[in-house]
Amino acid sequence: MATYVITHEVEDVDRWISSPKRAEAFGTLGATVREFRDPEGSSKVAIVAEIPDFDAFQEFIKSDEAAEAMKHDGVNPDTILVFEEGK
Asked: To 10 degrees, what angle do helices 64-73 and 54-61 make?
């Protein structure tokens, strides 16, 4: 399992933090996530994700299910950045 940091901007940070959609969506991949918010109060958020199969994640992120989850959570897909753990 590999660790990734994924950042993006959202419409409403409180709504994003409290939403179960993210854990549900990542759970279908066998992945776990931890959420982070900007302490300065911007709309930027991040997750640390443990993803067992990154190729499956890349396919999933293009799916209608992922688009629906992102829309529900108010994620701006154009701002998503994925960082792989350096080794």
From this structure: 70
pTM of the full predicted structure?
0.91
Give the domain ranges of the chain: 2-84
Please name the residues in contact with 15: beta carbons below 8 A apart, sequence gap of 6 or more. Answer: 73, 74
Report pLDDT digits (tens) over 29-80. 999 999 999 999 999 999 999 999 999 999 999 999 999 999 999 999 999 9
Query: If one looks up domain 2-84 in CATH, what number appears?
Result: 3.30.70.100
